[in-house]
TrEMBL record:
The keyword Signal applies. InterPro entries: Pigment-catalase-like. Keywords: Signal. The keyword Signal applies. This is Desiccation-related protein PCC13-62. Pfam families: Ferritin_2. It comes from Hibiscus syriacus (Rose of Sharon). Residues 1-25 form the signal peptide. PANTHER family: DESICCATION-LIKE PROTEIN, DESICCATION-RELATED PROTEIN PCC13-62-LIKE.
């Protein structure tokens, strides 16, 4: 009798341990189709990531010191036209130094990707549009009068840098569990930790002026981060993952604070975003297959081609 009981228990264990995806889906409902993690090879994910890093790095370098990635590391990325609309931003010396370092960090990350993965230099370079108008559209501030310009005010610039950095960190967090290879895992972990620290610095700088009015508007930094968060979440189409610097008490850490310098979920865990979410936001179209915004011609590589082929808008 004891043997039969043990056998039954073992069989029951097998049923639950190796249950089919259909059974698991009934127990743990799948997210909506537009929010499901996609199956890409590790190399395809790094190829996608490298282009997001290029977007942010070109913006930071050209805004702070007026040079691009290939000026720092010749031949690292493909040649071609410089990013559209790049300009040196009006920043104080401290902020300029910080942004310059973050841009140089991005060059290092691209070089590390080339060193560790099978991606060879020059890396594919997407067409980048960092005009003030493009940023205003992506941030959901295109209707402001006078037009919102990220380049002629420190706080406005930091709002743009915050969004790009947050999207980068969220994407890195999303793909981390799927990366194959010890070296590749260490590479992504190192990049993600650096970018997360940079995000903390940017949001701390913004929070220091959270109640300051951003000229020439009557809106404060808090107001603008709320507007941006609402726009980004609507376009991302996969729940609330972008948050302002001040949140209601019931949404704050452990329901005890309204301060939200470090955005996170109810358990203070970082949010993640998959490829299609990131593209919907950067394109400013709410559709990962309709290009626009900061990457008007889309991206290169297997990941973006599959998104287009499967019409994963």
């Amino acid at each position: 009798m004891a043997t039969r009981s043990c056998l039954c228990a073992f069989l029951l264990f097998l049923v639950f341990a190796f249950q089919s995806p259909i059974i698991r889906a009934n127990i743990f409902p799948l997210p909506p189709r537009e929010c499901r993690q996609l199956s890409f090879a590790t190399l395809a994910r790094f190829e996608f990531l490298s282009q997001l890093i290029q977007l942010r790095t070109e913006f930071l370098l050209r805004s702070s010191i007026g040079v691009g990635i290939n000026d720092i590391s010749p031949g690292l990325i493909q040649g071609g036209p410089a990013p559209i609309g790049a300009a040196i931003a009006t920043l104080d010396n401290v902020t300029r130094g910080i942004i310059e370092q973050f841009g140089l960090n991005g060059v290092g990350h691209l070089r590390a990707i080339v060193d560790v993965t099978a991606l060879n230099p020059p890396l594919p370079r997407p067409l980048i549009d960092v005009r003030a108008e493009a940023f205003a559209n992506v941030l959901g501030l295109g209707g402001l009068v006078p037009p919102f310009n990220v380049y002629n005010n420190r706080l406005r610039f930091l709002l743009a840098a915050n969004l790009l950095t947050n999207l980068l960190v969220q994407y890195e967090g999303a793909i981390a569990p799927a990366i194959i290879g010890n070296d590749e895992q260490r590479l992504l972990s190192g990049i993600e930790r650096t970018n997360a620290a940079e995000l903390g610095v940017i949001r701390a700088q913004l929070y220091a002026s959270v109640n300051a009015t951003v000229p020439p508007y009557t809106l404060t930094v808090r107001n603008l981060t709320d507007i941006i968060a609402e726009t980004v979440n609507l376009r991302g189409r996969c729940d609330v993952k972008e948050e302002g610097l001040i949140v209601p008490l019931q949404l704050g850490a452990q329901n005890r604070t309204t301060v939200n310098v470090v955005p996170a979920d109810v358990n203070s865990l970082a949010f993640t975003r998959i490829e299609t979410e990131v593209l919907r936001i950067i394109f400013a179209t709410a559709n990962a297959t309709i290009t626009g915004g900061l990457l008007p011609s889309g991206l290169f590589g297997a990941a973006f081609r599959l998104i287009l082929a499967l019409r994963l808008g």
